[in-house]
Amino acid sequence: MARLGEVEEEFTRRSLTIAVLGPNLENLDDTGTLKRYQIRDALLDMGHRAFFPEHHIDSTAPDWIGQEQDLLRDDTVDLVIILHTENSWGAFGEISNFVSILDIQMKTAVLFPIEHYKPTQGMTGNIVQGYFVRMPYTYEQMEICQLVSECTQWAQQRQIGIWPELPPHFRF
After folding, report:
1. I need a labelling partner for 83 at 20 to 30 A (CA). Which of 38, 40, 63, 68 fits?
2. pLDDT for the residue 5
3. What's the burial of 82, exposed, middle or buried (CB within 10 Å: 0-12/13-18/19+)?
4. Alpha-helical segments (H) within 23-172
5. Cα 115 from Cα 108, distance rounded (Å)
6. Which residues lie across from 19 on neighbouring strands?
7. Which domains does the chain have, with CATH numbers?
8. Nearest partner of 135 among 157, 158, 152, judged by Cα
9. d(CA 14, CA 97)
10. Rounded CA separation 64/127 (Å)
11. How far apart are CA 79 and CA 118, in angstroms?
């Protein structure tokens, strides 16, 4: 029988395949776009396989949304991180689309600025409430990508069948 320490060590060594969604990648003047690149790079530095879904689908095809959904539903994707910033309407669309798709919703962590949202108030607050992992962030937390490592720990525990109690800051 494995000891708890051995089990914990096993899941922390486990590499994840992570889709990073959020602001448009082409607008390099946008801080949200730059943060999305930083999140992907931080995940790669941690030894995970992180990618941007739009690099793996034909975004000019009429069914590109369906292609993205199929990609994210795939069992090889362990975690979906959606970075929502105050100006990322594309990320808001993804949050809205995926909340009703259980295969995606159950492995998604939504990161959003705490300053702009109140739970169950307004369209964004209501939609975000539909996700199990809701991570409001301050700009200081996002600056150091602190929440990224918390997302991966949650996904690693989920992967081996442990559904941890979420810390209070994961929910609002």
Report:
1. 63
2. 59
3. buried
4. 31-45, 64-73, 89-98, 102-105, 122-128, 139-143, 146-159
5. 21
6. 51, 80
7. 17-170 (3.40.50)
8. 152
9. 29
10. 22
11. 25
Residue 33: Cβ-neighbour burial (10 angstroms; 0-12, 13-18, 19+): buried
Q: Find the helix packing angle between 4-13 and 146-159, rounded to 10°.
A: 120
Closest Cα to residue 94, out of 134, 116, 65, 118?
A: 65
Q: How far apart are CA 65 and CA 137, in angstroms?
A: 27
- Rounded to whole angstroms, how far apart are CA atoms 159 and 40? 20
Query: CA-to-CA distance for 89 and 87, rounded, in angstroms?
Result: 6
pTM for the whole thing? Answer: 0.77
Nearest to 75 by CA among 104, 54, 112, 42: 104
Residues in the chain: 172
Query: Residue type at 52?
Result: F
